[in-house]
DNA sequence: TTGTAGGCGTTATCAA
DNA sequence: TTGATAACGCCTACAA
């Protein structure tokens, strides 16, 4: 077993001092050509690579980014991670992924672990537990310690930090406007309760579009589920009782489920009911009929978050001033809507 | 901004030595009750937490696991990560995720970065680039350096290390047997070329089941695509020309796509053609009709891999002997197959 | 041109 | 009971 070699080994082997080796490997002018060549050759031969941990300790910089997300088995978060990785890798950062599992406690524990030197900064999206509890003390701590933080998608304005979001209100607005423009009269909304920041904003967009078209808001056309769990019974009842002729769903699973239940109830998508869903993941693309969707641009969001974070980490950006980058959602028209 | 506090700060503040502080915080018997209480109170007040990096350097143990996978926007890998996280978190390990993007070069670069002290061990699934190139030098290096390695799903027998796989051959066998038992005569296979270890084994299972039922293997009933990209045209041609009455697909996207094309060609699933797909992700569940699938037990695979790795890392397991854990795939019956 | 020494934050050994 | 010292691996200011 070839043990990893250190400066010390090389120094002893070649009868020079550690600092000479260090300098030689950095091609320092101070060291004679002969010595450098000898040392570099030896290092190459034994495949010397500096120890990241030692360098981190010395530099107080780990080149690691901590990413804390609620769930990884979720297309949107997964695309965000991909975006983060893209940018981070190119800047030679590694990504440590932690899952909060939608739980406040896990979010806190994970962040505390990482905050003790393991990472240079955080990129995160709040767990539903945290948003429900409305307690951001752990984020505040991190910020006060001077650890850069970028929040994405599920954010809070109670913390001053950089943020990247899509304009959720605009997304919902676009969708509902599109539905009303195509002649739909009873546009339903399947969403979650308001504590989730994104749901709240999407609900606003829904209302705004209705208002703009002079359509009165009707409670019975809005189904607010307590969580992101699919509750088929409630969705089925909603469809039957409220009799919408169009539905906007706050995520694609609700949308797909609604489409199936609509068919079960003997109505047709898109002829009888149009459906649009947030998120635009694989399900929307491959559904039958394919689901028109609000695309959230996860990869771009991830790249943007990583960029903002790394700029803060490397001090390229004023550490006291924060920006919120708002990406514009796109409406992707597929087969679940009529013109 | 509250800077992170160190032993040194505490020592200076309380006029004791660093080592006294260190011991006091570990509740050492050596230190007097008074001193301990004073120091502990102070530490609590200033929320002292030891620096992970310093501890890593000292202990030569990072409590980080490196996970290298081909792609993260992929339900199966994502469930594996979740399984890894579950086990790792509970053992207080963090997970560093790197994406090889199906590229040999990226895989090598990522591993080299992490191997320089950032992690205690690797869990990985080979990129298609690596399997195509059939070059495992980088894995060999890691192993020779004494870094524990666990391979999952896409593995190679050219490297001696722990492995976790599902029995891919068995999975395909089960599926094809099921199709033949229900009276199907022309069972097609949509797969990728053999360089992908899992495809190869699934192809074997397909052949085995045919043989067992005395059905002759026919080239025209097997479509081997060059990569995991969906090539609709080739799939459509295949369906039209080979006229299978059942299809097994090596992943769910091929399966879903086939179902749609079948319908476009005026045939019905499952009445005219049964379809079974590997992977069992969201698409299979929510497809219409829902897709019968071979479940790969990603989460369990992840937990198992993490367990094996951490046991090696912590020396609970002989570092010279390796096991391959084979999980049994499950056939999930849904609406795309008849009885 | 090369080497010494100190420090990053922690722990462990040994001395006081 | 407390403290000094060395060590983990690396870097760098300064001395030789």
What helical percentage do the residues of chain A reach?
A: 40-55%
Strand content of chain A: 15-25%
What is the radius of gyration of chain A?
A: 26 Å
Greatest interface: A-B, 55 and 55 residues
The fold-level CATH name of the largest domain in chain A is: Rossmann fold
Tell me the total number of β-strands of chain A.
12
Structure class of chain A: alpha/beta
Helix count, DSSP H or I runs of 4 or more residues of chain A = 14
The CATH C-level name of the largest domain in chain A is Alpha Beta
Estimate nothing, just give the exact number of structural domains of chain A. Answer: 3
Tell me which oligomeric state these chains represent: homodimer
Q: Name the helix and strand elements of chain A from N-terminus to C-terminus, one letter apiece.
A: HHHHEHEHEHHEEHEHEHEHEHEHEE
3D structure, described in words:
- Chains A, B: Keywords: DNA-binding, Transcription, Transcription regulation.
- Chains A, B: It comes from Aureicoccus marinus.
- Chains A, B: Pfam families: LacI (PF00356), Peripla_BP_1 (PF00532).
- 2 copies of one chain form a homodimer.
- Helices cover 45% and strands 17% of the residues of chain A.
- The model of chain A has no long low-confidence stretch (mean pLDDT 96).
- In chain A, the strands form 2 sheets. In chain A, strands 2-1-3-4-5-11 form a 6-stranded parallel β-sheet, with helices on both faces. A 6-stranded mixed β-sheet of chain A has the order 7-6-8-9-10-12, with helices on both faces.
- Chain A folds into 3 domains: 50 residues, lambda repressor-like DNA-binding domains (434 Repressor (Amino-terminal Domain), Orthogonal Bundle); 140 residues, Rossmann fold, CATH 3.40.50.2300; 129 residues, Response regulator (Rossmann fold, 3-Layer(aba) Sandwich).
- Chain A is elongated, with a radius of gyration of 26 Å.
- Chain A contains 14 helices and 12 strands.
- In chain A, helix 1 packs across helix 2 and helix 5 packs across helix 14.
- The longest helix of chain A has 16 residues.
- By secondary structure, the first copy, chain A, is of the alpha/beta class.
- Chains A and B meet through helix 4, helix 5, strand 2, helix 6 and helix 12 of A and helix 4, helix 5, strand 2, helix 6 and helix 12 of B.
- Chain A binds a DNA duplex (16 and 16 nucleotides) through helix 2 and helix 4.
């Amino acid at each position: 077993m070839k043990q990893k070699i250190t400066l010390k080994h090389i120094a002893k082997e070649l009868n020079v001092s550690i600092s000479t080796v260090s300098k030689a490997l950095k091609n320092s002018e101070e060291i004679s050509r002969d010595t450098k060549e000898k040392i570099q050759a030896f290092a190459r031969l034994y495949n010397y690579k500096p120890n990241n941990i030692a360098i981190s300790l010395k530099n107080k910089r780990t080149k690691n980014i901590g990413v804390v997300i609620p769930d990884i088995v979720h297309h949107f978060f997964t695309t965000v991670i991909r975006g983060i990785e893209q940018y981070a890798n190119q800047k030679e950062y590694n990504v440590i992924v932690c899952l909060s599992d939608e739980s406040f406690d896990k979010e806190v524990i994970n962040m505390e672990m990482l905050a003790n030197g393991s990472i240079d900064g955080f990129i995160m999206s709040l767990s539903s537990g945290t948003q429900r509890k409305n307690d951001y003390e752990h984020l505040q701590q991190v910020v006060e310690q001077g650890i850069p933080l970028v929040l994405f998608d599920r954010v809070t304005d109670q913390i001053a930090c950089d943020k990247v979001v899509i304009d959720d209100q605009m997304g919902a607005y676009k969708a509902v406007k599109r539905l009303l423009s195509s002649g739909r009269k009873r546009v339903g909304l399947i969403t979650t309760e308001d504590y989730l920041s994104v749901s709240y904003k999407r609900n606003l967009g829904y209302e705004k579009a209705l208002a703009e078209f002079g359509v009165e808001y009707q409670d019975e056309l809005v189904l607010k589920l307590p969580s992101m769990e699919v509750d088929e019974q409630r969705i089925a009842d909603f469809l039957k009782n409220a009799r919408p002729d169009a539905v906007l769903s706050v995520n694609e699973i609700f949308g797909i489920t609604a489409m199936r239940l609509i068919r079960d109830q003997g109505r047709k998508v898109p002829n009888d009911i149009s459906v649009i869903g947030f998120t635009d993941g694989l399900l929307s693309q491959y559904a039958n009929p394919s689901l028109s969707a609000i695309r959230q641009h996860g990869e771009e969001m991830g790249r943007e978050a990583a960029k903002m974070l790394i700029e803060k980490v490397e001090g390229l950006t004023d550490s006291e001033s924060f920006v919120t980058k708002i990406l514009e959602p796109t409406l992707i028209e597929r087969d679940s809507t009529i013109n």
